[in-house]
Design brief:
Rossmann fold, binds cobalamin, globular, alpha/beta, 214 residues, Methyltransferase, Methionine Synthase (B12-binding Domains), Chain A, domain 1, 56% helix, 2 domains
Length: 214
């Protein structure tokens, strides 16, 4: 069994090779994927954020830690997805325009896949019109919007307005999330739901589609 505290340290220190190796060993040893993410990887990124705030870390360190997180997620993500069962509905997900943060969005996406949803991930920095286009192309039940910057939160409102203008708002439920997003903000912009983490995203998605828990 690998030492999982070293996974926390590897993400914190931006050591992508070690993060990837420990995640691979852990997955092979049968460690629960959600546990790996929730107990070691996300807390490491939280600490990265704390160090960034007090100027112990700068953008290069953020990038290295993000790379280590992604390297570890490569192994964990398929397992999160495999924890699911029946197709429960269709979801289009993306980080809104102007925002490049995609780690949380990727976790939400993987857990939704794990919850049995068919997920179309539009990536990061997604313009409102691309979400509208995706509604036409994929006919999702839900749209999930992620934002990590206070300055990109208005892009969530713009996206909802674009869905309204295109006449497709009534066809989809819109869930929003990301560290600066709050329930009050979600209500104010006319979203259907707000989730503070990926697990909540899955349970809300289930509520909206009437899907049963996997
Ligand atoms: C990693 C990181 C980066 C990386 C991103 C790499 C990547 N590929 O994602 C890089 C280095 C690129 C980066 C850049 C910048 N960053 Co940055 N970054 C972070 C950091 C440290 C971690 C974010 C993260 O991945 N967290 C881990 C994930 C798992 O958490 P999460 O995203 O919150 O997601 C969870 C929930 O929120 C929720 N969720 C997320 N999305 C959704 C969606 C739905 C629908 C639902 C229901 C739930 C949900 O579920 C997720 C899992 O449980 C945060 C600090 C922090 N603690 O948040 C700063 C932070 C977000 N960054 C910040 C800043 C300022 C920047 C820059 C402007 C820095 C600069 N000067 O250039 C740029 C902006 C670039 C851009 N245009 O987007 C600030 C934002 C401040 C603010 N209030 O706006 C933060 C808060 C750091 C700080 N304390 O100052 N950053």
């Amino acid at each position: 069994m690998p030492d999982l505290d070293k996974l926390y340290e590897a993400v914190l220190n931006g050591d992508h090779k070690t993060a990837s190796a420990i995640a691979k060993d852990a997955v092979e040893a049968g460690v629960d994927a959600l546990d790996l993410v929730a107990r070691y990887m996300v807390p490491a990124m939280d600490e990265v954020g704390r160090r960034f705030e007090c100027e112990d870390y700068f953008v290069p360190e953020l990038l290295l830690s993000a790379r280590a997180m992604k390297a570890a997620l490569e192994y964990v993500r398929p397992l999160l997805a495999a924890q699911g069962a029946q197709p429960a509905g269709r979801v289009v997900i993306g980080t809104v325009k102007g925002d490049l943060h995609d780690i949380g969005k990727n976790i939400v996406s993987a857990l939704l896949e794990g919850g049995g949803f068919e997920v179309t991930d539009l990536g990061a920095d997604v313009a409102p019109e691309r979400f509208v286009e995706a509604v036409h192309t994929h006919q999702p039940d839900l749209i999930c919007l992620s934002a990590l910057l206070t300055v990109t939160m208005p892009s969530m409102r713009n996206t909802i307005q674009a869905l309204e203008a295109a006449g497709v708002r009534g066809k989809v439920k819109v869930l929003v999330g990301g560290a600066p997003v709050t329930r009050e903000f979600a209500n104010a912009i006319g979203a259907d739901g707000y989730g503070e983490n990926a697990a909540v995203a899955v349970s809300l998605a289930r509520q909206f589609t009437g899907a049963q828990a996997a």
